[in-house]
C-alpha cells in the first residue's frame, strides 16, 4: 500500500476518534470529505489545522433547497501529506447565520464575503463579509440560490432584444 493511502487512512481513523463525524466520503484519490454538525466546525477546523491542514483552499456553499439547508464546504490542503480535506456542515437556509472562521484562517474573510454575496449566508464576527465583492448595488436575492429566477431578473433589468440571423455555427468547409 502506498504512503498516500496510508495518509488518508490515518486521517480518517484520527478524525473518527477526535470528532463526531456524521459521514465520510472519498470524492477523489487523496481526498477525504467529512460531514459534521455545524456546532463542531470551529473545533474541527482548529484541530485539523494543528495537525497539518494549514491551507484553506476554498470555502464554498451548496444550496440544498429541497432540504431547506445550505451546506458550507471548507476545503483544506496538507502540503506534507498531499491530501485534500473537505469539512462540511449543513445550516438552516431560512436563517443562514454562521460564526466566522477568520480567527482560525484569516484569509477566510474573502471566501466568506463571496458566500455571503452569492448565497446570503451571514458570517457573524466578520464585518467584511457584508461588503460587496462583485455585486455592488444588487437588489435581488443572492444569485446562486436555487430559487433565484434568472429569466425574471433578466426581464426586469434588461431590455428585450430581437435578433436577426442564424447564429448557429456552419458545419463543413465554408
Jot down its keywords:
174 residues, alpha/beta, Beta Polymerase, domain 2, five-stranded mixed sheet, two-stranded parallel ribbon, 7 strands, 26% helix, 25% strand
Nutshell version of this structure?
The chain is an alpha/beta fold and 174 residues long. The protein has helices at 3-18, 41-50, 108-119, 150-157; strands at 23-25, 31-35, 55-64, 69-78, 83-92, 97-99, 122-124. 26% of the residues lie in helices and 25% in strands.
Q: Proportion of β residues?
A: 25-35%
Number of strands: 7
Low-confidence stretches: none
**Silhouette:** globular
Going by helix content, strand content and strand pairing, the class is: alpha/beta
The strand line-up of the biggest sheet is: 1-2-5-4-3
Number of domains: 1
> Architecture, according to CATH?
2-Layer Sandwich
Distance between the termini: 56 Å
